[in-house]
Design brief:
heterodimer; A: Uridine Diphospho-n-acetylenolpyruvylglucosamine Reductase, domain 3; Alpha-Beta Plaits; eight-stranded antiparallel β-sheet; five-stranded antiparallel β-sheet; 14 helices; globular; B: alpha+beta; Uridine Diphospho-n-acetylenolpyruvylglucosamine Reductase, domain 2; 4 domains
Chain lengths: ~425, ~475
């Protein structure tokens, strides 16, 4: 894993501990036109274009307090530097959770997860982090503190900064406090797995799952060497493609779904169908959550396409690197590909000639999650080849950060 | 900015959308002087009914050229004055763009034009095993474009989320007349979540001309219950206990006695007219889990003091219960000539307190206040009954409404859960938000709508003006 100073041109590190200090720091950076790199758990440093302007690192590590946790209202207000694991532990005491799966949860901070809009397997059944943020406090690029939303689960007063800041990569404002709505923990969690012979069969099964009577929390398609080496999967993904379906709910619901699904999967021709042993289920979820943090991989890409084109995109990726390890949140059309080697044709040419056309024809795109070597990190290769309204996004950016000091040069702006 | 539309502009509009799609006679315009919020009224100068995105863009460009304000409108069911044409100008009514363009079950989305009525989509999905989840009570009339503008909710949003959780992408005409597509059927579009910013922006950022919505699988089964209580306090305690126990029903609605009386007269459902309040509770999902959830809820209600918990015996009874709930507002006409519905939200554990305070505030202003609301979300809809022909009564309604909303804020809540700010609650924005918060919102609006000619003077208080400054002679009700 790269360290922060290897990745970012940081001249000085700051760890403000309250909003006033954060405002003062950003005001000072604004006045001196100094770049600011907001830092959470430093687990996604390679995400985005390489930073070119030297500047200050601003760690939110000291923003780690629980402000208010009215558990019976099923909301929690916390500072953004709290780690995902610590947040999960706090919520677990009340049998509640934020059902967002992230790798390196002991390091990754809530603010970082929101800024990168990071979501894992449970996004199929539980939604993404944007669905849970109901209040947000942040400091813009002029040093001005502002908030959006509130502390109640339903609220349409004012513009929805909770959504605007989610996924903005710290480029509009530095998030320092968040209110979340949370969910009760399920009584039981199970994972049903099986193997399919090829991608065509996988698509048939995925299409059947859309109209299945079961209500999965996750629908994953897994293949490649990373899964071979993982004992939890007992070699399910060794030579073939594995389909893993996460099920959560009451005991009765999960038992019914598991039995139904095992029967359905066999009907659809899936082989080696079984329910993962209860003692291994938690580890299996962790294994699926940790996959994107393949730091030894020279290149990790994330593709998003309409769900029905998931296997088509996987086929194209395997065409580039047959030894690629892949995790698809197949119910959502999200494909994460951890390459075994950097594409021999180069990143830009590979994307342009082989991958972007497939993603674009399925109304999607491909972005670079991590490219530690930093080769060929251009706007188009990192942020996809589609014609998103980047100009309009840039207009928004300029209003919140007129000097362009927040995470400069790393996001989609033109 | 001009306050009246010249004949030159009107002619341009007629050329752009066709003579038959333009209204400019006073009698025709009066229909468009307000939406479901009837206290403020003002006619637009011209109403146009474009049929295509490019017509919308042409209309917007023409308005810009002539320096005339413009705003979009769906079915006009907004309860906060979001469709009030402040300063007159051109109203762009999107009800002729009403096609369902695509339904894609494999990829779980549909594409609709903004004038598509909410319930049409669910009807079109019959037999597919899917539905469109946001179900505002006005779903038989309101449009999906309007739902996007106000981030509409509805009874079932407790479990399924509000409009923004179900919109994948939009095509929109910006304030300068350019057309953009943001998001789409594939998730995780790169860049800022401008879809999330547009949903709920009440027509102040862009005019949405096409919407990609997510489709939700129908639940395998339902258990629909009616908890009958002797006191409002017991009812609100039961709500708080259900949520506190970690149960997320599909819907959890409270109706108090006056509403039940009105509904009974209208629908003859068999509501217990001696009960002080009822809870309409629905759990849905897999059959395997429903009886247990039902039993748990029945237990909680009984412990909280419910006299009886009935269960809908069959689908017809369930449908009738929901019909009653969704038409509750219509039945209020039996209680008084006018009514004003508020939309405050409180943390759910504060429901017992806020319901007590609403009753006290009603008594203080000598007004009858009835309640029918989304209890599970803490989203209140106190309905203040009055006669808008009596000026003094109207003033009392406004004062009482203000006090109720202030009380919601004092509880840590919001002044609007699903109806929007519009013009109605604009004076509350600086009670909920600091000057810095509002300046940040102004920044977002300026990025999309730099000259504030699209839906001007909505949602955000303008400097030096508290609420509406009427710029154009018009007809005002009540005030």
């Amino acid at each position: 894993m790269s360290t922060v100073l290897e990745v970012l041109p940081i001249t000085e590190m700051f760890e403000p501990s309250n909003c006033d200090d954060l405002c003062a720091l950003i005001t000072s950076a604004h006045d001196s036109e100094t770049a600011i790199y907001p830092l959470g758990g430093e687990t996604a440093l390679n995400f985005g274009l390489p930073a070119k302007h030297s500047g200050w690192g601003v760690s939110l590590k000291q923003f780690d307090q629980v402000i208010d946790y009215p558990a019976r209202d099923m909301t929690i207000t916390v500072e953004a530097g709290v780690s995902m694991q610590s947040l999960a532990e706090t919520l677990a005491k009340e049998n509640q959770r934020l059902p967002i799966d992230v790798p390196q949860a002991s390091e990754a901070t809530l603010g970082g997860v929101i800024a990168t809009n990071f979501n894992g397997p449970r996004r199929y059944g539980m939604g993404t982090v944007r669905d849970y943020v109901i209040g947000i406090h942040a400091v813009d690029g002029t040093g001005r503190a502002f908030k959006g939303g509130g502390r109640v689960v339903k609220n349409v007063a004012g513009y929805d900064f909770c959504k605007l800041l989610t996924g903005s990569l710290g480029t509009l404002a530095v998030i320092h406090q968040v209110t979340l709505k949370v969910k009760p923990c399920p009584q039981r969690s199970a994972i049903v797995v099986g193997t399919v012979k090829n991608l065509a069969q996988a698509e048939n099964v995925l299409a059947e799952l859309v109209t299945s009577a079961t209500t999965p929390a996750a629908i994953e398609l897994l293949c490649g060497p990373v899964w071979h080496d993982d004992a939890i999967w007992d070699g399910d993904a060794a030579d073939e493609l594995a389909i893993a379906v996460g099920l959560e709910g009451t005991d009765a619901e999960v038992q019914w779904m598991s039995a139904q699904l095992l029967e359905d999967l066999e009907t659809w021709g899936v082989e080696n169908c079984r329910e993962v042993e209860q003692s291994k289920v938690a580890d299996a979820w962790t294994s699926m959550s940790e996959f994107p943090a393949q730091h030894q991989s020279p290149l990790v890409l994330k593709g998003s396409v309409v769900p029905g084109a998931t296997t088509k995109l996987i086929e194209a990726i395997l065409g580039v690197d047959p030894n690629c390890s892949i995790q698809a949140h197949a119910g959502n059309g999200i494909v994460i590909a951890s390459f075994s080697e950097f594409p021999v044709d180069g990143l830009s040419r590979t994307l342009l000639a082989k991958l972007h056309p497939v993603a674009n024809s399925a109304q999607g795109n491909i972005v670079v999650l991590s490219n530690p070597g930093g080769h060929e990190m251009t706007h188009q290769s990192v942020w996809g080849g589609i014609h998103a309204p980047f100009r309009l996004m840039t207009d928004v950016k300029q209003r919140f950060d007129p000097q362009g000091i927040l995470n400069p040069g790393r996001f989609v702006y033109v | 900015m001009a306050t009246a539309v010249s004949s030159n502009l009107t002619e341009r509009l007629r050329t752009a959308v066709g003579n038959e799609n333009v209204l400019s006679a006073d009698a025709d315009l009066m229909v468009y002087e307000c939406d479901g919020f009837t206290i403020e009224k003002n006619s637009p100068d011209v109403v146009v009914f474009p049929e295509t995105t490019s017509q919308v863009a042409t209309v917007v460009k023409a308005c810009n050229e002539f320096g005339v304000p413009f705003l979009p409108r769906g079915a006009g069911t907004s309860l906060a004055g979001g469709c009030l044409p402040i300063g007159g100008g051109v109203m762009i009514v999107l009800t002729r763009m009403k096609e369902i363009l695509e339904i894609n079950i494999r990829d779980r989305y549909a594409i609709v034009q903004p004038g598509t009525v909410n319930v049409w989509l669910t009807q079109a999905l019959k037999g597919t095993g899917f539905h469109y989840a946001p179900d505002p009570s006005s779903q038989g009339a309101c449009t999906i474009g309007g739902n996007v503008a106000t981030n509409s909710g509805g009874p079932h949003t407790l479990k399924y989320g509000v409009t923004v959780n179900h919109v994948l992408g939009v095509e929109a005409v910006l304030a300068d007349g350019s057309v953009v597509r943001i998001g789409g059927p594939a998730e995780d579009s790169p860049g800022l979540d401008l879809v999330g910013a547009l949903v709920g922006s009440e027509g102040t950022l862009a005019i949405v001309t096409r919407v990609w919505v997510r489709l939700t699988p129908n639940p395998q089964g339902y258990r629909t219950m009616l908890g009958i209580f002797e006191s409002v306090e017991e009812t609100s305690n039961a709500i708080s206990d259900i949520i506190g126990a970690g149960i997320v029903p599909a819907a959890l609605e409270m109706l108090d006695r006056p509403i039940l009386v009105a509904l009974e007269e209208a629908f003859k459902f068999g509501f217990p007219l001696d009960a002080e309040a009822v809870l309409l509770i629905e759990v849905d999902g897999l059959e395997a889990g429903l009886d247990a959830q039902r039993d748990q809820i029945v237990g909680i209600c009984e412990k909280a003091g419910a006299r009886e918990v009935r269960q809908a015996a069959n689908e017809a009874e369930r449908a009738k219960l929901w019909k009653c709930r969704k038409q509750a507002f219509g039945a209020i006409g039996r209680l008084s000539p006018s009514y004003c519905t508020q939309d405050g939200v409180v943390p759910r554990t504060k429901l017992p307190h806020i319901l007590k305070r609403i009753a006290e505030i009603g008594a203080k202003y000598d007004l009858q206040v009835v309640n029918v609301f989304h209890a599970g979300d803490g989203n209140l809809h106190p309905i203040l009954l009055f006669d808008e022909r009596e000026k003094e009564q109207t003033q009392r309604v406004l004062k009482a409404s203000g006090e109720i909303l202030q009380e919601c804020l004092d509880c840590g809540g919001s002044v609007t859960g699903e109806h929007g700010i519009g013009v109605e609650k604009i004076q509350f924005m600086n009670k909920m938000f600091t000057d810095e918060d509002l300046a940040a919102m102004g920044n977002l609006r300026d990025a999309f709508n730099p000259f504030n000619n699209l839906s001007p003077d909505k949602m955000l208080p303008t400097s030096g003006a508290c609420g509406i400054e009427q710029k154009h002679p018009g007809r005002r009700a009540a005030l």
